[in-house]
Design goal:
54% of the residues lie in helices and 10% in strands. The protein has a 6-stranded parallel β-sheet with strand order 3-2-4-1-5-6, with helices on both faces. It is of the alpha/beta class and 309 residues long. The chain is globular and about 60 Å long. The longest helix has 23 residues. It is built from 14 helices and 6 strands. The protein folds into 2 domains: 232 residues, P-loop containing nucleotide triphosphate hydrolases (Rossmann fold), CATH 3.40.50; 63 residues, Histone, subunit A (Orthogonal Bundle).
C-alpha cells in the first residue's frame, strides 16, 4: 500500500464561481481520476442549490467524494475533513486511480496538505463570555479586540464572522500568542502528499459578473424553496450552515427582516466580498500556479497530463 507522499494529487482552487467544478470533472475524465470535494458547505445534505454542488450530469460523468455526508445540524470541522479525505484518497489510489481535489475552502486544503496546527482545545467559559459581550455591545467590539492582539487575523476575518473571531481570541487568551503567528510557524511543516495546486484566475469584472449570474441562476433553480424546506424540516436559521452565504440572506427574507430584492442584492454583494477574501487567502500561498481560465485550458490539461504520466 502506498504511503501518503507516494500519492499524487491535483488540487484545483480558486474563488467561488471561477469554474472549478467543471474543470475538475474534465481533468478527472482525461486522467482516470475521481474528485474529492474540498468545499466546506458541499458536505451538507439537503443544501444543494445554495452551495452550487456539482450538477447531476457532472456527478454521473465522474465519481465525487465527500459530498452530502453530514446533516446541517452536525458539526464538521477541518479535522473531520482531513480524516475523511485521507481515507478516500487512499482508497482511490489503491484502485489505481488519481485524485482531483477541488474546492474553495483554503483551510481544508491546507489541513490536507500540511496537517493541522496544534492548538488548545478550547475554553467554554471564555467563549460564552465573548458571546455575551457580542450580544450586549455588538460583534464589532470583538473584532476591535482581535485587531488589538492579532491584527493579521483581524484583517483576514470578516467582522461578522463571530465564530472565527472568538476562536482567534480564545487561542490568544489560552496561549498568549496569536493564531496567525502559530499558523505562520506551522506553514513550514512537512509535505503530506506529492501535489500540484492549480489556481483559476480571471479579471475581477468577469468574476463578479459570474457571481451575479450564478446567484440569479440559483433563484431560478428554486433556492428560496430549498431554504423553505430546510426551515420546515426543523433546521433553524441560527445553525452555522444556515448562516452561510445565501442561506442567511434567504432566511432573513423569509423571517421578515429584509425585502426579497434587498436580500438578493446583499447576497450578490456578500458573495463578491467572499470571493475577494478567498483570493486574499490563496494569494498568500506560493505553491499555487495561477492560470487564466478558461482561456488557457490547454495549458492546464498539459500540466495535469504530464504530472500524472
Amino acid at each position: 500500500m502506498p504511503g501518503k507522499q507516494d500519492i499524487k494529487l491535483i488540487i484545483v482552487q480558486g474563488p467561488t464561481a471561477s469554474g472549478k467544478s467543471e474543470l475538475a470533472v474534465r481533468l478527472a475524465e482525461r486522467c482516470n481520476g475521481e474528485i474529492v470535494n474540498a468545499d466546506s458547505m458541499q458536505v451538507y445534505r439537503f443544501m444543494d442549490i445554495g452551495t452550487a454542488k456539482p450538477s447531476a450530469d457532472q456527478l454521473q460523468r465522474v465519481p465525487h467524494h465527500l459530498i452530502d455526508i453530514v446533516d446541517p445540524d452536525q458539526m464538521f470541522s477541518a479535522a473531520d475533513f482531513c480524516r475523511e479525505a485521507e481515507k478516500v484518497i487512499m482508497d482511490i489510489s489503491r484502485r489505481g486511480k488519481n485524485s482531483i481535489v477541488c474546492g474553495g475552502t483554503g483551510l481544508y486544503i491546507r489541513a490536507l496538505t500540511k496537517g493541522l496546527m496544534d492548538s488548545p482545545s478550547g475554553d467554554a467559559a471564555f467563549r460564552d463570555e465573548m458571546k455575551d459581550l457580542a450580544n450586549r455591545e455588538g460583534r464589532e467590539v470583538l473584532h476591535r479586540r482581535l485587531a488589538e492582539v492579532d491584527p493579521v487575523s483581524a484583517e483576514r476575518i470578516h467582522p461578522n464572522d463571530q465564530f472565527r473571531i472568538i476562536r482567534a481570541l480564545e487561542v490568544f487568551q489560552m496561549t498568549g500568542r496569536s493564531i496567525s503567528a502559530l499558523r505562520g510557524e506551522h506553514r513550514f511543516g512537512t509535505f503530506r502528499y506529492d501535489y500540484r495546486k492549480i489556481g483559476l484566475s480571471s479579471d475581477r469584472e468577469t468574476l463578479y459578473r459570474n457571481i451575479d449570474n450564478r446567484v440569479d441562476l440559483m433563484i431560478k433553480k428554486g433556492f428560496l424553496e430549498e431554504v423553505k424546506v430546510l426551515l420546515a424540516t426543523g433546521y433553524p436559521s441560527s445553525l452555522k450552515p444556515m448562516r452561510s452565504l445565501g442561506y442567511r440572506h434567504m432566511c432573513d427574507y423569509l423571517e421578515g427582516f429584509l425585502p426579497f430584492e434587498d436580500a438578493l442584492q446583499l447576497m450578490k454583494r456578500d458573495t463578491r466580498r467572499y470571493a475577494k477574501r478567498q483570493l486574499t487567502w490563496f494569494n498568500q500561498d506560493p505553491e499555487i500556479k495561477w492560470i487564466e481560465y478558461p482561456g488557457n485550458l490547454a495549458i492546464i490539461d498539459n500540466i495535469v497530463i504530464d504530472y500524472f504520466d
